Amino acid sequence: MDDDLHVVHEAIKLCAQRWTLEILTALGQRPMRFSELLREIRPAPSSKSLNDALRRLRDSGLVHHTDDTGAGTYTLTAAGTHLLPLLSSFMREMRRWSDTYRDGCAQPTAADTGPA
Q: How far apart (Å, rounded) are the C-alpha atoms in residues 90 and 52?
């Protein structure tokens, strides 16, 4: 696999893992404690699932955890902050694509089929 494609593939795999988009979206609003994330995300993940997802996102450099007050707070890192609008744009485009081609009902246009 081409190196560029491999890097993109790994990033997509990370974003596709359960609770990633929900966590990044919630933390894009403001820093939150663990219990706040549990209340904010709907449907709510189990504590274990949320903890595992937060650990994965911390290990990937997208989320930072501080525990200086005894009530740890999660925030987006610079990388997470940069990624969030890219994901939003990607999700909008995927929705547009899905609306057009959902269930294979849309007929391909000449541009889709190329030269005859």
A: 25
Concatenating the DSSP letter of every residue in 39-84 gives HHSSSPPPHHHHHHHHHHHHHTTSEEEE-SSSS-EEEE-HHHHHHH
Structure tokens at 10: 């790994």
Q: Do the bridges between strand 73-76 and strand 63-66 make them parallel or antiparallel, or are there none, so unpaired? A: antiparallel
Q: What is the pLDDT of residues 46-98, one digit of tens each?
A: 999 999 999 999 999 999 999 876 678 999 999 999 999 999 898 899 999 99
Sheet of strand 32-33, all strands in order from the earlier edge strand to the far edge: 32-33, 73-76, 63-66
d(CA 50, CA 43): 12
Q: Which residue has the tokens 């849309």?
A: 106
Contact indicator for 34, 74 with CB cutoff of 8 Å: yes
Retrieve residue 39's tokens: 């209340």
The answer, yes or no, to whether residue 116 has pLDDT greater than 70, is: no
